[in-house]
Amino acid sequence: MPKRIKNSAAVAVPKAPLWTRIKKDVARNYLLYLLMVPGFLILVLFKIGPVGAMVIAFEDFSAAKGVFGSPWVGLEQFARILQDEYIWTITKNTIILAFLSVVVVFPVPIIFALFLNEVRMRWVRNTVQSLSFLPYFISAAVMVSIMYTLLSPSSGLVNTIITRLGGESINFMARPEWFRPLYVILEIWQTFGYSAIIYIASMMNIDPCLYEAADLDGASRWVKMWRITLPSISTSVITMLIISVGNIFTVNLDRILLMYNSGTYSTADVIQTYVYRIAFQSTGFPDYSYGTAVNILKSVIAFILVMIVNKIADKFSDSRLF
């Protein structure tokens, strides 16, 4: 009998429509989708939604007339920025604070994570990590209040030590030259423990065989730290550096508003505080359009810097953000 020839071509099963597949997936994983709802609403209402309101930077916005009723002025608000002499002062202050944040604050959690990883006693490592993490959950108002108490010219611990050593009491919070160091110290104090978690998590993924091979070669703990641990977390370091550059014009507004005063404006006034005063000033009418224009220009410059740093990272290393 002649053999039956089998059809080798696979029978194509028609694919269900996209909407049908989405409905099945939602029905199967509805609890996960419910967990996404709060975050999605926050993203839409507070991140995506306000982007459309940036159109007021091209208008002479009036709250009474609304976005659609305010007259269109084009780039007039941006031309005002170039004519505003004070804009250069606040831009300089913002760049200096951001530069200090990248150069001084950024390396601290990396160094902390490297040394914490070398602690062999697990309970000591966990205790230190927990204590360093706690300040992140303390509000800026409480942190600044603690700093005010420690630096009080009459009863603060720091000035008490200075006077006991024969020096004169210093009103740190009212001296413009002390604002930037105090801001950086507070930034390190509040954020280094939280930022270190990212690097500690990266260290958990390092192959133990690398350390075992280094031990066979007689490498010291210092050599292993600099030759194995640090290169292994370089991807996380570069990614966080690019993100930090993206936030280079975004300083902690709450902390600055609580720390600065009229006596420290020369070093403490930054783009965010200037925009805040323009948009919510107590005298006259708020200038929402000009404040929005300043903020848009700041965001555009930050975006350009991120693109440049990302390109440099891609050229000189194997890591990039996108």
Layout: helices, strands, pairs:
Blueprint: H1 18-28, H2 30-52, H3 66-69, H4 76-83, H5 86-105, H6 107-117, H7 122-133, H8 140-150, H9 157-164, H10 176-203, H11 208-216, H12 221-232, H13 234-246, H14 253-259, H15 265-268, H16 271-280, H17 288-316
Helix pairs in contact: 4-17, 5-10, 6-10, 7-10, 13-17, 16-17
Pick out its properties.
0% strand, mainly alpha, 322 residues, globular
Give the helix proportion (percent range).
Answer: 55-70%
Low-confidence segments: none
C-alpha Rg (nearest Å): 27 Å
Strand content: under 5%
Class by alpha and beta content: mainly alpha
Q: Which descriptor suits the 3D outline?
A: globular
Order of helices and strands: HHHHHHHHHHHHHHHHH
End-to-end Cα distance, whole Å, is: 64 Å
Describe the sheet with the most strands: none
How many individual helices?
17
Task: Output mean pLDDT.
Answer: 83
Tell me the total number of β-strands: 0
Any overview of this molecule?
- With 322 residues, this protein is an all-alpha fold.
- The longest helix is centred in the last third of the chain and has 29 residues, at 288-316.
- The protein has helices at residues 18-28, 30-52, 66-69, 76-83, 86-105, 107-117, 122-133, 140-150, 157-164, 176-203, 208-216, 221-232, 234-246, 253-259, 265-268, 271-280, 288-316.
- It is globular.
- The protein is built from 17 helices and no strands.
- α13 (234-246) runs antiparallel to α17 (288-316) and α16 runs antiparallel to α17 (288-316).
